[in-house]
Amino acid sequence: MGTEFLKIKESEEATEIIQNLFDECYRAEGEEIPVADAYGRILFEDVLSPMDFPPFDKALKDGFAVKAEDTFGANDENPNTLEVIDFLEAGSTTDKVVESGKAIEISTGAAMPEGADAVVMVEYCDKGEKSVDILKSATPTLDVAKKGSDIGQGELLMEKGSVLTPGKIGVLLSQGFKTVNVFKKPSVGVISTGNELIDQEDELTYGKIFDVNGNMIKNDVISCGGDAKFLGIVKDNYDQLKQKIQESLKEADILICSGGTSAGLGDVIKHVLDELGEVYIHGISVQPGKPTIVGVVDDKIIIGLPGNPVSALMIFNVFVAPAITKLSGIDYNFAEHSINGILQKRIHSPVGRMQYQLVKIDGDKVYPIFKDSGAIFSLSTADGYVKVLKSVELVDEGEEVEVFLFNKLI
Amino acid sequence: MGTEFLKIKESEEATEIIQNLFDECYRAEGEEIPVADAYGRILFEDVLSPMDFPPFDKALKDGFAVKAEDTFGANDENPNTLEVIDFLEAGSTTDKVVESGKAIEISTGAAMPEGADAVVMVEYCDKGEKSVDILKSATPTLDVAKKGSDIGQGELLMEKGSVLTPGKIGVLLSQGFKTVNVFKKPSVGVISTGNELIDQEDELTYGKIFDVNGNMIKNDVISCGGDAKFLGIVKDNYDQLKQKIQESLKEADILICSGGTSAGLGDVIKHVLDELGEVYIHGISVQPGKPTIVGVVDDKIIIGLPGNPVSALMIFNVFVAPAITKLSGIDYNFAEHSINGILQKRIHSPVGRMQYQLVKIDGDKVYPIFKDSGAIFSLSTADGYVKVLKSVELVDEGEEVEVFLFNKLI
Q1: Whole-prediction pTM
Q2: Are the CB atoms for A301 and A291 separated by under 8 Å?
Q3: B153 CB near a chain A CB, below 8 Å?
Q4: Can you tell me the distance from the alpha carbon of A174 to that of B215, in angstroms, rounded to the nearest whole number?
Q5: pLDDT over 70 percentage in chain A
Q6: Which CATH fold topology does A2-29+184-327 show?
Q7: What ipTM is given for this predicted complex?
Q8: Of A107, A166, A200, the CB nearest to B173
Q9: Cα separation of A42 and A164, whole Å?
Q10: What class does CATH assign to A58-145?
Q11: Which CATH code for domain B31-51+161-183?
């Protein structure tokens, strides 16, 4: 029993151990997916331009492709008349060459014909049957985008870590990308333990309650960029939990359990992890983190969250979400996303333990969500948490507090 | 030709016409989906609590279930000794009744046994072989959550329009919901038109460019909460476009086309819509909205965006995104999401026309993205737009501007 206490960690220490274990056990991976389905995904590598863009000298206006020198001195009163020898839509080509005295009618986006070096906008042209009067002088390259003028082949198009917005998807499409290499979503399995838990498919009998943590934590993992599966409920029983963990390790790279970790009658997960692998954290010296457990089995991390849904959501967001978010490639600094507000109800905090208090926000009002029975309903408005330092016993109603927000994705 | 001008609309008028057409043609619908897969979806109706919660009197602490009166006067020095007649884990039940002088050991979350009205925490108990010494007096209901004390059957649990966060999903699960009625995603088909456009599967030949708008707008519709499909590229040709629109109307409720709407050589979409249905807007008096077209065929809205990707993204976000977002059930007031910054490059604006200028933001610096050739690459950093009023000709470098942001979802 004596060594047990060594595994109770302070908050900062726990954060560091968890991040280090993630760094040791996992390496971010990329996967090729269609660009068309990439909304919100994150680039796994720098993308270089595969070609010059535009890929040809391109007309930027509707008008006439000409030799600029043929227009010098032209104005409304003294137009220069040119022979129109062809017509080029965007996407079409011609064998004809624009020689001195000739012009080709051209649409925006069309490739410039050989011999021409400028476009005179249709507004400055007076079109006849087979000729055109040019009413304004043009300089060479006027309303022409030169081949490769926007970006050259091999230049950096987009950086690793970019979140693929519609605009970024547009850029990849313009360069002809069919697929793109994005961060693969880490595979996370979620297990609930507890004799009192039943599935929503089951009938509620006396003394039982519906499992909340399984699919709640699954969805929170999804919000961190993970690929999460709820793997079911097991009894708070050594053999069943052990078997479930062993099976689940085949289905997911990270396992998150909840329940079964209280210091009371259960605490079976600790014994299972001790047998199957190694326990690194057994209790975090924070409120409400006492029953939290972190172990490694077969180079895969297994995390045990408290069974109470308010505590489970809190501990997941403070200690686990940052590591999963980072592995998912999301560049989100949790510490930087906070807002200040006025506390609406006093928070008592145990001296000598950091407290994380779940809160909801309404304008600049901050309401603590206490872990009592009715708190399950306040979960629906949980926006983030307030940190109460070790040395503080009380934060009073009316004090200004900093709220760290949960929202993780774009 | 004379009536044509009647269909050129001012910006505010166009916004109103589009929203009114959406209100006439579509009605938001709900669909039942599993709660477990509901992250980010939006409640289509108020959810009432189907049951009392907690569903039974519940122990809030590990300890002993007792009659409170049996503990009156107890303290460290004068404990009251009670006979322990059973042990109740969370989820288990017992036939035994707590009569005076008796106690049942109980775990957090377990249903209170008959006869008991309080829990004495394990810290205030000294457990013997078949008895327990109670070291502290308890009042009735101490550490007991009464049945229905958190919420009663039929009370409002969650409001229509709520975005389903992990916490809200947790609340639904706690009440035993297997499925939830959420806003159905509006079905949107996207078509690109242009002779110069090729698919990313095709080889790039001289004069052609890869289609950008199809899958870019598809992904932007997804970011508005829509269910979008890119239906392919058609030539800028009356018969092909007409056939494509007719086919596409069978696959989607809203159609968004781009290209084929310039005042130049194409403009086929206008003629197709005139034949198949009715055109309500043909040109919006904004920069860059001139080629925008809005029509209705078979009670379905068809929108034609400009072919230039920068203009297409801009017009989609200003005029179409709000209507799709609203139909998706997302309560997002675009006008309210703006930030101020300092313009880094002068914007020239045509007098007499509202201008929407696409911009990117870097800290408090605002960079305009001009619709010239290279703008396609700036799309990757487009964050929103700046409005330049009709009466303004120039917004100078260094001026403070308001940027309306594109980001639409949670």
Answers
A1: 0.86
A2: no
A3: no
A4: 11
A5: 95
A6: Molybdenum Cofactor Biosythetic Enzyme; Chain A (3.40.980)
A7: 0.86
A8: A200
A9: 6
A10: mainly beta
A11: 3.90.105.10
